[in-house]
Amino acid sequence: MTPGKRKAVCLLSGGLDSATCLAAARRDGFECYALSFDYGQRHLVELKAAARIAESLGAAKHAITTIDLRLFGHSALTAEIDVPKGRSLDEMSHNIPVTYVPARNTIFLSFAVAWAETLGAADIFIGVNALDYSGYPECRPEYIEAFERMANLATRAGVEGHTKLRIHTPLMQLSKAGIVELATELGVNPGLTFSCYDPDAEGRPCGGCDSCLLRAKGFAEAGLTDPAG
Questions:
Q1: Domains plus CATH for the chain?
Q2: pLDDT band at 90; cut points 50, 70, 90
Q3: What's this model's pTM, rounded to 2 decimal places?
Q4: Which of 50, 57, 95, 182 is deepest in the core (most CB within 10 A)?
């Protein structure tokens, strides 16, 4: 551990949001331990992006763990279900899409809590957003607050009072344009990131899924060009 720096576990998918979140943790003086997941997602190429980002942003360690959420199915990201294309912003913000992976953030945060406890870390960063997002229920502030309370009841560190876990959501109230602007300010290279839910066989973004559309919206409203195309 770098002297004088607190440790933080940062969930890192490989997308622009999680990369910006990792950069924000670094800005705030944390020694960052990046955590990514191979969960059977169709856009597995995002893990290569996560590795690039972790190295670029100086993560102390980057761990990739495997959990097969294909076992449960019922998501276009883990089952043979078509990924919706061309949805309007209104549809994205008011309906839970078929790309929702049941309990994904709950599972990811549980792993992060476990790693944080073994590291002696009190801080977890996750790049959820409640403004320009795809309608996922576990991106809401009330969910994060409830999970944080639960984590402090469920861990030895929390019960014994050694550590009070805190979940940081630095992107929660930012628009996609705001996230793009923050990424630029923090020195994130968007060209290293990958956001598409349904890439082609060559790993190129589809341009029409919710994630691609929201990313394009962010860059357009920020008046910047996306180097990833």
A1: 6-222 (3.40.50.620)
A2: confident
A3: 0.94
A4: 50
